[in-house]
């Protein structure tokens, strides 16, 4: 990939005639678009009939773009198999949990595990990689697109036949599975792997271990499909490979990105949900350390389909969305899509140009982004995001556990979104990291909402604390085993045994009117909770008042080496709970010696970067209400020139500033 | 049909013994019932076993009614095939969009397109037509009943096999279909017609063109079934033919009524939803110009089934419901049903008599209607409804488009209901007309919520304006092609090209806080919207304030010949929006020289009629709150005698007056 | 069963190793647990492979319990067939009304009527009965568990094939069925029994008679399965047999308990829904007169599963739950469950011990119950519940009718719950009784919400009134026949004919703004209602004001012999309606000479018992707010000693007192 700050759009030349394509290229040049993403839905143009593969059209398109200096990300077209793949072959179609078989007419309707589908995917991918792998316009690959954005686990006969083999690979003997899962409950015990059902309809809920295992199985199979494509591409191309993912899809992102070269995702915030967008930046920046991530898709104004849309962005938002993306670590920022679809089911989706070739409602925002991209490019290319001192684990596996066992109808994404936001509004710079990430450089580590704490995480946390770090464990962490059962050695399993704290009870505290008191704040407690007894080697910092266990602890410190482990057993709720979370985060950030902190009003964020020996703060008003930031020292104004004294800086609606700090 | 004002009820002699039937006839005579509708659910009585057809029972029933001077509408019994039709033959059953196959036990469970079902329908209809077609009691035919009231499109194998032929008939070549639909999106492209799926479950929404086409296909097939029956009946009978329809069912009423002789529909308002009932009168009056429509079914007090019912009418409502029906053009007003069902799933439905033969809660209302029918008959028979000067297009095809693409979860019926009501409360007499209706005699024409504006409509509108008419186009009109794609020549397609206005953008304005200001009224704007730029040949009369396109136009006039075209690009919302609509309607009614206007309080309506050289106004308080009307000139009180001076006339709760205007 | 007051828990030794089992037994002894329930989910432990039956494990477990003096209720394991029952045999699985076939992985997934399943059930039950039928630890049997707690009627092919035979057994000829059901409606008429469908999906609702009959069929089949097991057990054991039922399941409890020896049920109130729990005590006490019922399952604090839980009880509630149970007639009070499940789908359910062997959050409550059980045992064993003078009929058949025809979305359980609560808060002691119960000893009898009043009930009521009793009939009673059709002789059928009152109309009064005025109270009226005309032999005590039948009666007395029949035609709503109900109950209790009445504050209840020639009142504050009771005479304080004077007695939060009344 070239040393550029990329701004681009998804482009579908297969949908338009050559005259329109030429108009589009001219308009791209006028707008400063320097990259397009192509190909992910174009299989029927590449191979209209089976084995009739012709990629000439796309090679010529890449030639044209290259001639104009526009780079290309090319995608494999596997999300949209042509009609010859499935017509007359229902056995190749995805079947959902209700037993409903999908049909051609949309996308992702094939079972990804069907051998014929897989074979045809290998063939088309190999052809593309051969034909375009060394094309000078090509700067990167995207494999497939938004895996599982419309579908979840598949329940077709192919998957049914693969499932016992997967189980056998994991458990070796059926006795081991029965023991691990505890299948004597309700006489579920199996005599052979082929008897273990897919979690299809049954009178009540399926066994938790089964449901969790099936989700893991499905996620592994997606990853294998991705890896298979990556291996083929690498034979013919050195360009870096990514997948356009999204946290909301049913995937194991940690596993998937191991075999990829850079991170990318789609992101469709509306202008009032920018906090979760910033979480994505804080997470995907760390997926491939040192490699910029891409916002592979974002709307110019609103997304839309036949039956709804998000409200269009307020004017000014798109510009700060892009500024924040680049500042927090994006190397590319791409719109979906260049030209409004003239047909299909996404005709109302925002775009750069309308279907009739005129500027869309989002066009002025695109012009503004193009301008600021140019202004930022030298600053961004010569610096890189500063590592945070605070890390929070983000786990797709934890999400699976909370999907199998939602307890208070918990939603993992909403839970971590809230914690992330409160970290942000506590003024703490933060990295979200996958389970296997190393903790070097961090001082405070949080692992909330991780029902199963694998041994390697526990060991990592203990070592981290021993060396002076503070590890905040919980809430809703450690109360399940890796097999999705209840620990039988202690409420919170191995951690409780090692650290010698004592859980008094684990129970649903919601509805009992229990209040938590900690860090000078009082808030209602909720969700499935662990409450603790005071012991000689623990220090209680949060107490339960009222409810059925008054006087119990719900936040407790266990001193550990030079640091400590902080057990958070229950979840403070509501506005008071937010306040308590911020107070807790600040308290332990202080204790841990976290120095990278910001004093800004809520709605205004700071992206710290390091480059050429100095610290750069990109400050952005994200909520459109304006705000202010306390500059800790004088700073150069890197966009407008001049020097700004230490002290408060005011930002207007959707204003952003770039400061080079003195010191 | 005789020169009578009809009042009747649905009657099911097949459910009762001869003693009860005789009691019923005597009670009908006492009540002044002069017509009954018979036969629509009686197939198993006519043909209890296949080919064992005996219509003697019904012939004798018609003899009895004829002897008593009660006329009969006879129905074909095709909505309720007997058990021998489907037992052991699942392939003859309707299959819904979820793939669920219906069973015997209710009605409409057969696929209407199955050849065996169709053959048996032809046989029973021919037998009935032969046996009863010249019976002196018979004054009309009803084909089937409430097509598609419980089911929508069918997805059975018969329909699956017919679908490619229908497509081929329409597109001739698969290339033409691919081009028209734009199937390169998501690689949906088809190689042959038999590959085009029915819109059964797929991971996301189906292609809009496919979904719209399948709905059109299904509606055409219903119409063909109707036409087949009509053709058979006409061989043996001269009595006029109708179908008992309802706007809420999934039908193409415009096509269906082309081949029928008079319009009829069922109508189950509760006493607070009379506005939509009046819309039906304003529409069906114009379906067969010059021929009175029939309210073929309405409750005496409330409808009901096993799991719910509407609230019973307030006392007095039934009387004004009938008065309004007759005054607005009904030739018949029929209850469903005469005697409460003693079994089945509609036992709680209101009726004239209870299952045990006593007056129901609705009986006093029936007595009142019978009395007023007699009083009105001479007035109604010697006059006819006055044509309106304002017409609004009602389109089942538009409804299909908004079903395929509901955008803001729009409901076509609610949208047009609202516009109709505001026309009414603006004091404008109005006709609702189908797409192909001629515009002779109208001065103001509205085509709101018609996503696709066919060429013939555009041409009609331009000619209408050229000759001095005002055509109000939109909102939500013209932004799609007939293939349910986006126009690529201009935002609003051909109309925009011809009239040379300019759409700045089409986007969802909901949620952006945009306000519309027009005709001195301010209101929030909502729904998918087009906003316009001011050009040399347009005059802006409604501006957008706030939101993402402040300063754009949302109502714009294009002068055209002696008249003008008024583009309405967005939908004003809420009470302010209602006020804006009324202001706009009055403004353009003034401009267009509409003279037929009423000044009455909301809830009180006027049905204008012409007869024997004078204007008759039937004034009815519909809401039960009383109201008043400004008489423009002195008038004769045609019900009570005497003369009433010009000026305000007060109406009490559910009062009605009939005035012969002096002028 | 021994002369003990039992306190126990459900125990699953098959899930734990011998070391854990020994710890559990020791803890049970410490806690005073004197009974465990075992076996209902253990089939795969008893017969891991087909015909490999070994009950040695359970015999040894019973030996151990017997050695420790802990008695055992043993269950047949038929709710959880092992995998060999269904793997490869989809035809043995339950199919729900939507046609969805269940799978192994939960419980109750087999069709109970499948011959192979039934054969295997007979074999395992016979083996168990033989092996354990005379074991000295065994004090009782439970057949299966919570029939139909997760499933409703089955629609599999086995059930499809049994259904015509059941119909033939009931109607003999298809003509009789057609006549009884009135199948001429919608041409539904059948030519043979095998044509009558199961109520699977059809375009609208099925015929009411069909839906009701299918529910009756399914309930009879469950009862037959139960009876089959009971017959086998009785061959080898004299221990009494029960089933653990619940009013919410789809069962005919009256039929089922005829062949059982004692009543038992599960009950999972949260601490704020204790009123419905008390209804269970008032009902199941009377199911097997003279035999104590068992609360076979109740939580120690909260129930729970993968996706939710009830809120834990406030501290103190569990103790009064147990006191109320024993006082109102329970001989046993059992928790579900002893040790938290470590796997499956109920891991979050409250228990006595946690999965890791420590006291749960409910443990202190269990300690308290154990203590009070000891204190109460001598008092309870030497007395028995006092019969009430007020009886209300509870009918699972009525529930079926309201399920088939829910009218205003009525829920039978909620309707009777409300009437029971208002009886309780009117200070009336009450028995709930099944339809066939005798009325000896009662003075006031209520039959609300019984759509079909069988002849034997009518005759019983007339005889009861003749002899001086007061029979309150309605609301929603008597308006349907036993075939679920409308009576054709009179609105309320035979009763109306015999008693010569006159129903003016039956209609949905909801939404008409009708008010009821009776007993000095005014309240809105709702639901499907009958209103009456005043006749010479009736006395109106409740009038309708407003609505569509102003001036009609809705409560009317018919003097009958020495007593009277009170017709209640409509349901008073809201708080005013509650007040009217209490006023009506008190008024007729006075008229009927009901003397067993309490004056306590709402939330505090009295369980009257008789023993050793005196009256004992167990007074319990159930709502946790404290309360008071007016003692009608001095009394001995049987728990704390001393004498308490007549007059008000104050109870604190969750306090209970036991008084031996003087006189």
Automatic annotation (TrEMBL), chains A, B, C:
Q: Which cellular components does GO assign to this protein?
A: beta-galactosidase complex
Q: Which family does it belong to?
A: Belongs to the glycosyl hydrolase 42 family.
Per the database record, which ranges form the Glycoside hydrolase family 42 N-terminal domain?
11-371
What Enzyme Commission number(s) apply to this enzyme? 3.2.1.23
Q: Which UniProt keywords apply?
A: Glycosidase, Hydrolase, Metal-binding, Zinc
Q: Which domain of life is it from?
A: Bacteria
What are the GO BP annotations of this UniProt entry?
carbohydrate metabolic process
Residues that hold substrate according to the record: 107, 145
* Listed InterPro entries: Beta_galactosidase_Trimer, Class_I_gatase-like, GH, Glyco_hydro_42, Glyco_hydro_42_N
**Keyword Hydrolase: yes or no?**
yes
Which residues are in the Beta-galactosidase trimerisation domain? Answer: 388-592
Q: Which residues bind Zn(2+)?
A: 111, 154, 156, 159
Q: Is Metal-binding included in the keywords of this UniProt record? A: yes
| SUPFAM superfamilies reported for this sequence | (Trans)glycosidases, Class I glutamine amidotransferase-like
Q: Where is the active site?
A: 146, 297
Write one Gene Ontology MF term: beta-galactosidase activity
Q: In its UniProt entry, what is this protein called?
A: Beta-galactosidase
- Reactions catalysed, as given in the entry: Hydrolysis of terminal non-reducing beta-D-galactose residues in beta-D-galactosides
Q: Which organism is it from?
A: Paenactinomyces guangxiensis
């Amino acid at each position: 990939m070239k040393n550029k700050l990329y701004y681009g759009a998804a482009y579908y030349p297969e949908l338009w005639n050559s005259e329109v394509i030429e108009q589009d290229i001219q308009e791209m040049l006028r707008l400063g678009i320097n990259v397009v993403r192509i190909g992910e839905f174009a299989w029927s143009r590449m191979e209209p009939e089976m084995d009739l593969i012709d990629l000439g059209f796309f090679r010529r398109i890449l030639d044209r773009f290259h001639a104009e200096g526009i780079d290309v990300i090319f995608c494999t077209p596997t999300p949209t198999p042509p009609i010859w793949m499935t017509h007359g072959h229902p056995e190749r179609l995805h079947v959902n949990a209700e037993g409903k078989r999908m049909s051609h007419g949309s996308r992702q309707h094939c079972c990804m595990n069907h051998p014929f589908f897989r074979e045809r995917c290998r063939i088309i991918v190999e052809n593309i990689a051969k034909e375009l792998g060394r094309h000078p316009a090509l700067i990167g690959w995207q494999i497939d697109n938004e895996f599982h954005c419309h579908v979840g686990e598949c329940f077709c006969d192919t998957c049914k036949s693969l499932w016992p083999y997967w189980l056998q690979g994991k458990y070796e003997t059926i006795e081991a599975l029965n023991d691990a899962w505890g299948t004597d409950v309700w006489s579920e015990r199996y005599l052979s792997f082929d008897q273990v059902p897919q979690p299809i309809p049954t009178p009540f809920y399926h066994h938790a271990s089964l449901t969790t295992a099936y989700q893991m199985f499905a996620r592994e199979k997606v990853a294998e499909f991705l890896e298979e494509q990556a291996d083929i591409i690498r034979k013919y191309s050195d360009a870096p490979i990514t997948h356009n993912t999204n946290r909301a899809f049913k995937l194991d992102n940690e596993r998937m990105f191991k075999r990829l070269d850079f991170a990318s995702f789609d992101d469709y915030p509306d202008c009032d949900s920018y906090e979760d967008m910033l979480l994505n930046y804080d997470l995907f920046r760390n997926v491939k350390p040192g490699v910029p991530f891409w916002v592979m898709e974002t709307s110019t104004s609103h997304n839309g389909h036949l039956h709804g849309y998000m409200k269009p962005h307020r004017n000014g938002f798109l510009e700060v969305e892009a500024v924040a993306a680049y500042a927090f670590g994006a190397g590319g920022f791409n719109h979906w899509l260049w030209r409004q679809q003239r047909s299909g089911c996404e005709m109302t989706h925002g775009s750069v140009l309308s279907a009739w070739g005129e500027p869309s409602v989002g066009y002025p925002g695109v012009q503004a982004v193009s301008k600021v991209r140019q202004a930022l490019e030298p600053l961004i290319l010569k610096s890189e995001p500063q590592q945070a001192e605070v890390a929070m684990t983000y786990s797709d596996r934890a999400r699976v556990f909370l999907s199998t066992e939602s307890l208070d109808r918990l939603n993992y994404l909403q839970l971590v979104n809230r914690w992330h936001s409160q970290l942000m509004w506590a003024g703490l710079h933060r990295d979200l990291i996958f389970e296997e990430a190393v903790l070097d450089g961090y001082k405070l580590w949080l692992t909330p909402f991780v029902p199963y704490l694998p041994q390697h995480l526990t060991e990592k946390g203990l070592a981290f604390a021993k060396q002076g770090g503070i590890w905040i464990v919980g809430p809703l962490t450690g109360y399940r085993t890796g097999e999705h059962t209840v620990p039988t050695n202690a409420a919170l399993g191995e951690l409780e045994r090692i650290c010698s704290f004592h859980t008094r009870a684990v129970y649903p505290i919601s509805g009992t009117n229990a209040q938590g008191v900690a860090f000078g704040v009082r808030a209602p407690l909720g969700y499935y909770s662990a409450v603790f007894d005071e012991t000689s080697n623990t220090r209680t910092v949060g107490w339960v008042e009222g409810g059925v266990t008054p006087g119990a602890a719900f936040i407790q410190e266990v001193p550990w080496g030079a640091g400590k482990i902080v057990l958070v057993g229950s979840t403070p709720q509501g506005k008071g709970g937010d306040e308590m979370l911020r107070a807790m985060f600040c308290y332990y950030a202080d204790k841990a010696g976290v120095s990278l902190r910001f004093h800004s009003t809520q709605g205004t964020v700071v992206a710290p970067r390091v480059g050429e020996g100095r610290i750069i703060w990109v400050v952005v008003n994200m909520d459109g209400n304006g705000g202010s930031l306390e500059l800790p020292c004088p700073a150069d104004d890197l966009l407008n020139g001049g020097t700004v004294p230490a002290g408060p800086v005011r930002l207007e609606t959707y204003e952003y500033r770039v400061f080079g700090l003195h010191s």
